[in-house]
Specification:
308 residues; mainly alpha; two-stranded antiparallel ribbon; two-stranded antiparallel sheet
């Protein structure tokens, strides 16, 4: 009888210890800086693209983009603020540039990185940058240089690729607390594509094919979800996402611009400070600590009633 009761107590203690460890793990994940998830996701996508899709990534250009981004971030921190050097944002910008931008010139690649990270320290309003760094760098080099391009079909339109991008992207936007703007944009853009197909009598396979664009999904999950360059309040983010979808569709079908989503974002970026005035909300700040603090593990309490 005593041995049976001791065995039940032991099982109860093990179960409660497991629950505490799980709570500690979840609490640590909640406190983790979302940029860690973004860096991991971009690294995974880059590995997937090079290893399985055989993306043409010039290693010299990739290293130049990475080093330029880190150097600009370092000097930008030293010259404009007292904050310690933080390479995470530069890693995200450089990873996004390596994924999306294609150029035959090393100088153009370096210029894109310089413009992207440098824009954070130059184009500011009320203490925050107002353009997405990667978006700004890509759009400017597309306008200034003839040897730069972004291929909308770069990642193909395979359903498996789209599913993988959406899964990884979902983790990122959830951690950055900006899933609303991503999904409203995708829903609005999809509604426009399917509505257009119905209007012209096109088969539904056409809008499905357009939505499977890897570049579109990277844009939706990794660019417009940037919490520092999106509106603070949720109603404003919803309006902003719908406006982005409308502008992107207009540029794609009225101006026949395959990378219209990128131009739509850069053109609508100045609207964000205006929306923040009319729809005030809590400004997003990156977590000051990324390691988190474990929940205090108290000894398990085993009641006689439970153990019996």
């Amino acid at each position: 009888m005593i041995g049976h009761r001791l065995k039940k107590w032991h099982v109860q203690i093990v179960k409660q210890s497991g629950h505490i460890e799980m709570r500690n793990l979840l609490a640590r994940l909640r406190r983790t800086d979302p940029r860690h998830f973004q860096i991991f996701a971009l690294a995974a996508l880059l590995s997937y693209g090079i290893g399985l899709l055989q993306l043409d990534v010039d290693p010299i250009q990739a290293i130049a983009i990475l080093l330029t981004s880190l150097l600009v971030q370092y000097f930008g921190n030293r010259l404009t603020s007292d904050r310690p050097y933080d390479a995470r944002s530069a890693l995200i910008s450089s990873g996004s540039l390596i994924l999306l931008l294609r150029t035959s010139s090393l100088e153009t690649a370096i210029a894109a990185a310089l413009l992207a990270v440098g824009s954070k320290f130059v184009i500011r309003f009320r203490g925050r940058h107002i353009v997405n760094p990667t978006n700004f760098g890509i759009v400017v080099v597309l306008l200034l240089f003839n040897d730069a391009w972004v291929s909308p079909g770069l990642w193909g339109s395979v359903a498996l690729t789209g599913a993988a991008l959406m899964f990884i992207g979902f983790l990122v936007v959830q951690r950055a607390e900006r899933s609303d703007i991503t999904f409203v944009f995708l829903f609005s853009y999809a509604a426009i594509l399917f509505g257009r197909a119905l209007w012209y009598g096109d088969p539904m396979s056409i809008p499905l094919h357009q939505l499977q664009s890897g570049t579109l999904l990277i844009f939706a999950f990794f660019m417009i979800s940037d919490p520092r360059t999106t509106p603070d309040a949720r109603p404003a983010r919803i309006l902003y996402a719908v406006a982005l979808a409308l502008a992107a569709a207009w540029g794609r079908f009225a101006l026949y611009e395959p990378t219209a989503v990128l131009y739509a974002l850069i053109l609508l970026s100045p609207v964000v400070p205006v929306l923040n005035i009319f729809f005030p909300g809590k400004r997003y700040e990156w977590p000051s600590r990324s390691d988190g603090t474990e929940l205090k593990q108290s000894p398990p309490i085993v009641s006689a009633t439970t153990a019996a």
